[in-house]
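Review this:
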Amino acid sequence: MLNNNKNYDFMQSGAIPNTKEFSDGLRRHMIGIYNTMSVGLAITGVTAYAVANTSLINFFMNPNATWLMLIGFLAFMFIGFNPRRMWSASVNSLRATFYGFSAFFGAFLSVYFVLYTGESLARVFFITAATFLAMSVWGYTTKKDLSGLGSFLMMGVIGLIIAMIVNIFLKSAMLYFIYSAIGVGIYTLLVAFDTQNIKRTYLANQSPSMAPKLAVFGALSLYMNFILLFQFLMNFMGQQR
C-alpha cells in the first residue's frame, strides 16, 4: 500500500520520490511495458495478415466466430490473467500467455485485411499510434489525479460490451455508430488513465520479483486500449474494399 506518511501519494501532492534510483527504476519499468506491448502488437499484426492469406479466413469471416472470440477473451481474462496468477506464475509464463493472447486476437482481426483496404488500415493504425502516444505521455506526466475517471470508464466499458452483444442480434447501423463513437472516447481516456495507474502501482510495489510481472499486466492493459481504440476508429475511418 502507499505510504501517505512519506508523501508517496503523488497524485494528491504532485510529488514523487525525488531520487535517481526511483526515476531510473520507473523508466526501466515503463520501457519494459512498452516493449512487451509492442511485441504483442507485432504478433497480432503478423497473425492477422497470415490468417487472412490462408483458408482459415473463411472460418473467421463467419458471424458465429464472434461468439468464440468472446468466450476465448473471457477465458484469457479470468484464467490466464487472473490477478492471483501473478503471485504463483513465472514471468516467462505470464509473458507467454500475453503473446498467446496477442496471436488469438490477431486471428480474429484477420477479417480486417479482407474487409478494408491496406491503405486505410495503415492510416488508422498510425492515427491510433499517435493518439495512444499523446495520451500515454499525458497520463505519465500530468500532475492531475485521474483516478476519479475509473468508475466512469468502467461503466462505459460495460455499456459498450452490452451494446455490442445486443447489436449482434439487432444489426442496427445507428447503434453501431453510437457505440463506436463512445468507444473512441472511452479508450482514448483509458490510455491516460491506465498509464497513470501503472505509475501508481509501481510506487506501491517496488519489489524486484514483482516488477517484471506487473510489467506484463501493464502491457496487457495498454495493449487492449490500443487494439480497441484501433477497432473503433476503423468503424469511422476504415475504407471498405
Observations:
- The first helix runs from residue 10 to 13.
- Residues 1-15 have pLDDT under 50 and may be disordered.
- Residues 136 and 191 are 6 Å apart (CA to CA).
